[in-house]
UniProtKB/TrEMBL annotation:
Domain HTH gntR-type: 3-71
NCBIfam families from the UniProt entry: trehalos_R_Bsub (TIGR02404)
PROSITE patterns to which the protein is assigned, alphabetical: HTH_GNTR (PS50949)
Name this polypeptide is given: Trehalose operon repressor
A Pfam family reported for this protein in Swiss-Prot or TrEMBL: UTRA
Keywords: DNA-binding, Transcription, Transcription regulation
Xref: InterPro entries: Bact_HTH_transcr_reg, Chorismate_lyase_/UTRA_dom_sf, TreR, Tscrpt_reg_HTH_GntR, UTRA, WH-like_DNA-bd_sf, WH_DNA-bd_sf
Amino acid sequence: MRENKFLSIYDELVNQIQAGKIKPITKLPSENELVEQYETSRETIRKALNLLSQNGYIQKVRGKGSFVLDVSRYDFPVSGLVSFKEIAQKMGKPWKTIVNELEVLHPDDYLQKQLHLSSKDYVWKVIRSREMDHERIILDKDFFNKKVVINLTKEICEGSIYEYLEHVAGLKISFAKKEISVVEPTEEDRRYLDLKEYNHLVMVKNYVYLEDMSLFQYTESRHRLDKFRFVDFARRGN
């Protein structure tokens, strides 16, 4: 028996999960049943199950067995500062950005507070639906300080605003403060997203800063609840 048989068992189960042959929330056969099915040892099965658990395919429940997790969700990095275009291209899925609104306006009281501006300043308002796999699953509401972001066009907004700001406008985007909450959808959300039966959204507020520590962007990014899992890498320091 090959020492790496657990890897072939792992690969076979992963393929079945990804292909939808084993549905989310389904309970896997018991260790004893898998031992018989694959004609191998309990240790080999446990190695395969541990690897499935580590990589987010199953959840082991003490005394009940192993249950398949929903792997159709897209990983959204919590700590990273990346554009939707970069995420979509990394996933290799068909994607599209739909520009619903693009205008310049004076900030209201709420935006003045978020961007530390006065009523006499101007901001770009950009509302975009993000489509992936032919479903509109993110609504991005971006507000940029016009003193910093001088020019925007529909074509720029359909691609990547960050790509334009960094490579054409020469801005150095440094970091963001993020707040994550679960909210009920508004009429605007229902108009611009394919919400289906879902009655809640994950909202990520972003306060984005340049290298010189100046705040130039406030964003509300509203995600359909079933399509994303928010991931991060945490290290315990000394």
